[in-house]
Structures are given as C-alpha cells and as structure tokens.
Amino acid sequence: MTTPIRTSNHLAGQKSPYLLQHAQNPVDWYPWGDEAFLKARSEDKPVFLSIGYSTCHWCHVMARESFMDEKVADLLNRAFVAVKVDREERPDVDHVYMNVCQMLTGSGGWPLTVLLTPDKKPFFTGTYFPKDSRFGLPGLYDILDVIASTWSSDRSALEEQADRVYAALKSAGESLTSQGLHDLPKPAPGGTPFEAVIDKAYRDLSQSFDQDNGGFGSAPKFPSVHTLTFLLRYWKRTGQKRALQMVEETLRHAYAGGIYDHVGFGFFRYATDTKWLVPHFEKMLYDQAMMMIAFTDLGLATKKDAYRDVVYEIATFLENEMKSPEGAFWSAVDAESEGEEGKFYVWTPDEVAEVLGPKEGKAYCQVYGITAEGNFHGKSIPNLVPAGGRPDAPARTEVDIGRGGAVSDKNRRKLYAARSLRVHPGVDDKVLTSWNALAIAALARAGRAFNDPAFTDTASECLSFLERNLVKDGEVYARFRDDEVAYRGYLDDYAFLIWAYLEMREATLDTRYLTRALELSLRMVELFWDDEAHGFFVTAKDAEELLVRPKEFWDGAIPSGNSVAVTDLLRVGHLLERDDLVEIAYAAMEALIPAMRREAVGLCHLISAVLYAEGGAQDVVATGRKDDPNMQAMISYINSVFLPHAQVVFAEGLSAPERPTLRICQRKTCGPPLTSVDALQKALLVPPKPQLRS
Fold it and tell me: Cα separation of 102 and 496, whole Å?
C-alpha cells in the first residue's frame, strides 16, 4: 500500500530559509528535535538525516532529483523518519555527524546524508547521492531500499555497525588532546615546545605552495585566510620574504581569478580548479569578512594601494547585496538562479557588447577573458586574463589587480546594472551572530588601518544590532530571522563576538569594548571550557546532549572557535593583566601541541596565537590627550603599519605631559619617549626581539 504524499510537512512554520526550501517537499520532513526521534522509536524506524544549507548548489540538486520525487518520498515516508537540519543554525549537530562521515568515507561536504538508529547512532553516511546509480555513485533510492529491507530482516547488523561507529566517535574525541607533552622532543636551550610547531607550519605551507597559481595544494582551492594571516605574522617575526611572497601570490591570483566577482565584487566560496577560475558560486558572509582581513593586512604589510582597493570593493558588495535594513548582514547568496549554478554571473561577448557597445565591449572581453567558446558551460566567468592573454601564463604581474581599470569602472557599473535585471540568486537572510561578528572585526580593522571612519561606523551599526537582538542578560544567541531569536550561542558566537569587541576597541580606543570583551570571556570560559582535557567545547555545558559533546580544533573555511577563543583570552588577559585568562589560553595551546606537530597547517590560527603569546605582545603606551592633533597623527601612523601584535594603550592616572608621548613596550620594558611621527618611524624600523616563555 502506498503512503499518501503530503503537500506540506513538519518544516512549515520554521524560520530557517533552508528548512523552508523543503517545507513543500513530498517527503514528510521533521526538524531536528524530540518529536522526530520519539516518532522513530514509537514506530520502530531508522532516521534519515539530511544536513545542508540554503545556498548550496548540490543540496538543490539532490532536492530536485530525490526529495521532490514521489517514489523516493514514498519510501522515505513509509520506512524512515526524515529529519532536515540547517548546518548554519545547528553547527553542533553538523559537527558530530560530519566527523562520522569523514571518519567512515575519508571526506565530507554538503548535503550530508546520514542513516541513524532511533537513539541517534549513525550506521551509514555519505554526501550527495543521485536518485539513481550513476557517476560511480549508488543511487539514493537503492540505498534506502536496501537499508529498509535490512532494518526489517537483519537489524542487528545495522545496530552493531552503529555501536562500532559510536565507540570510534567517542574514542576520536577523547584522543586528540590526551597525548600530553611526554612524547615530544625536548626544546632547544632557551626555547619552548611551541618553537617547533611555528617553523613546521611555515615549512609545510612552503612545500605545498603552488608556485604558478598561488594557494596551497591542488583543486579544489579555498582562500584559507587563516594560513595567510599566519604567514604574514611569520614574515613579520622572522623577515622570511618567501612567507610574504606566498601571501601576495595567493591573494593576487585569487582576486584575478573567477572566484572573485569582477562585476559586482565579493568572493565566491572556493574554486573547483587550481587556477582559481571556476568557483562554486555561493557567496558567504564569512568569506567576505576573512578576505577583507587578509587584504587589509597585506595592504599594511606592502603599502600597495591595490590591496586596499580590494577591501573597499568587498565593503561595497556587503553594502549593496548583504546588508539588512537594520544594519546587520545576511548570511549568504545562493550559488544558482533559475535552477542553474552560476547563471547570474556569466557572460557571452554578444551580451557584453550589447551593454557596452562593440569597441568598449571588445576591450572588456579581452581584459576579462570573455570568449565565444566560454570557460563555463559555453559562457564566460569574468577573470583577469594574465598579461599577454595566455591562460597558461605563469605568475600574474604585480599590476594585474589594477588592470581592470583599463576598461573603466563606468563600464563595470553598466554591466552591473544590466546584470541586476536578471533573475537574482536567492539570499539567505538570517543573521548569524558568529558571522556578523567576523564582519564587525574585519570592518573595524579596515577602518583603523585606512583611517576611514565609514568602516568603523558600519561595524558599530552591526554590533548595535547584535547587542539589541542577540545578547540578552549576558547570554549570546546564535540566530535572528523574521523577529525570532533562536538557539543558545555556540563557542563561535562567543569567541567571534569577543574578537569583534577587541577590534572595535583598537579602532576607537573606547574602553567600554574591552569591558564587554572581558565579560564575555569570563562567560565563555564558564560555559565551554573543558577542565579535564582542556580546550573549549562547541556547545555550552547545559546545552542539548548529543552523542558526544563536540570540540572543533581544526580551522576550516574560518578559524576554529578554539583558536579564536585562545587568541581572545591572550589579548584580553594581556590588556587587563588577567593572568588567569592567559593561563587558560596556555593550557589549551599546550594540550594541542601534539596536534600542531602532526598537522600544523590545520591549526594556523592557533599558531598565530602562539606567535602573539611567545613573541611578546607590544603595547604602544600613550600619555596625553586623545584629541591632540599630534597624538592623533602618531596613532594614525601606528595604525597604518603592519604591527599584528601591537595595541595602543592610554596610560591611566598620569597627568598629561606638555607634548603627547608614545612609548613602545614589550614584556613590561618600555623604550624611550617618542613625540613625533618621524621618531615613531625610526623606532619601528627596529623589530622587537621575541622573548619566549620558559
């Protein structure tokens, strides 16, 4: 007997754009929660868990092929309880089952497909499956049919598999920080165990660097900004020019490639090829924030205006495409429109000529590689073709980032206006605390670096939204949409918001931001710190109990919550002389030394924190009035120099001297008084000496 197909399901009424995309599927989806698992237990059915996000191309493909198909829906509704999860709202659930997928298959991604027992133990997992077997992949219908049959005839085999996976999952979570320090070689005299991991990260990145195209390893290529910011700090610490070169080459090629939207600005999520040409076309808020940080730091390090200009372009995209009327930022722009990935973004020469005219259109197409044969399904993704027009040319030149000016911004604006008449990709308009906090940190850093209050004002507006809507009685919440606040904050929400407060403090020198950073730091430690194995959990101590309480140490598209939390505690502890916070940060770093030694590249943001701690943070101690023009000129100069470990601190309780004075201090030892920009320039030519903690 065939189960009647529903015209709506239990996702109706949810706020997540991703869940709402599936609310009219014939599959009787449930959101993650007690109702679904009570139904699975009472009806004695396995659970079909599908995890994704609203702007994911392959999630859309699987939905069209399978979840809108009545045959698949009938089988799911008869033999399973189907559960949908938005990974951006429930990173804790996603983390647990993505770890299972990577453990069992060696890879992961979205959509994530997991089969569970009614007590949430997984026994089968994968990512995208076509409806019918093809591409060397088993078809979803066949998989479900076999599992439904096995559940009825030989359930013990599936339950035994689930128990084995659960045991392995628990063991993996317990082993990461359990090795301690006993298996490490002794450090060199005067050194620390951290010295080896700093150099290992640099060596590993150097060995995997793509000399021709920038980036690390082969396709697919992600920007991985945390590796780039580490390399800039390593260059600043050691003077190793190759570290700076790797950052420049990577960002230059990424910007010149199709992973960057040369018409509307902003970065797509990643490139599917080694040359950064063909992206997956999602635009994520976190990528804009991280790339803004990378180009800001590179602009400071090199003093090249072209890198600063990229920061302004990203900010323009955020303002035009991702900013809510209330001043916060939406989460993402979809990969596809009209059912086709990238359709909104690609061009033919005729389409360009229709907008710009034959002469200007030809010039634009030559610069941006738009050809009759195309580079993406018969059309072209605009990209800055290497000088000479040879797609196989080696490294692009230093001026490539500015070459688009040859066809004028006026022409770009014309193309942007014409493109805006196309059917737009969807926008995931939920506001996530963690990703907005990253944007605040990036904007505040850019405002300070480029002495532009417009950046800082935008950051302040966004921060005010979070404080009004997502911070309540000292508790942080994760998501806002359609006037609904939901989900108690995860580690990332706390850690990234503290980061935002610290960057706002640096940009404005307003001590209120530091006070808020301290309050959240203490609450973060209370809720997430692991007293036994050290490090921070993803979820708060009184959060929903999952199969395991997840931890995330490895950097992904964004730095891990643990890495950011450690950096936060080091900075807050240093600025407020809170040794208790610094000791917690060191406990986390020391617990992860074995992991850093094994896979240093995957922990680059944490190793940047090590550089901050071990290299000795610098204080630029100011005495005098903040509004004095000479003081403002000196602080502006400090902000315009790449000093990743420095912060300006106004001396408290001292009478203002006749002339504004700065002193550069490290490890509580201060240099001579400096009373002019010229004196500052000379003093900063001498790099600080690292003083390592014994």
Answer: 26
pLDDT, tens digit (0-9, with 9 covering 90-100), for 131-166:
998 877 789 999 999 999 999 999 999 999 999 999
Q: What is the distance between the alpha carbons of residues 335 and 343, in angstroms, rounded to a whole number?
A: 9
Q: What single-letter amino acid sits at 212?
A: D
What pairing do the DSSP bridges indicate for beta strands 122-126 and 81-86? unpaired
Q: How many distinct helices (H) and strands (E) make up the chain?
A: 25, 20
pLDDT beyond 80 at 406 = no
pTM, two decimals, is: 0.93
Burial class (CB within 10 angstroms; exposed 0-12, middle 13-18, buried 19+) of 571: buried
List the structure tokens of 646: 């420095």
- Return the beta strands (E) in 109-239 as ranges: 112-116, 122-126
CA distance 210 to 276: 12
**Beta-strand relationship, 427-428 and 340-341:** unpaired
- Give 231-258 pLDDT, tens digit per residue: 999 999 999 999 999 999 999 999 999 9
Q: How far apart are CA 143 and CA 3, in angstroms?
A: 19
Q: Which residue, 672, 687, 691, is CA-closest to 240?
A: 687
Question: How far is residue 11 CA from its own chain's centroid?
Answer: 28
Distance separating alpha carbons of residues 374 and 378, to the nearest angstrom: 5
CA–CA gap between residue 261 and residue 534 (Å, rounded): 42
3-state secondary structure 225-255: HHHHHHHHHHHHHHCCHHHHHHHHHHHHHHH
**Torsion on CA atoms 96, 100, 101, 107, rounded to nearest 10:** 100
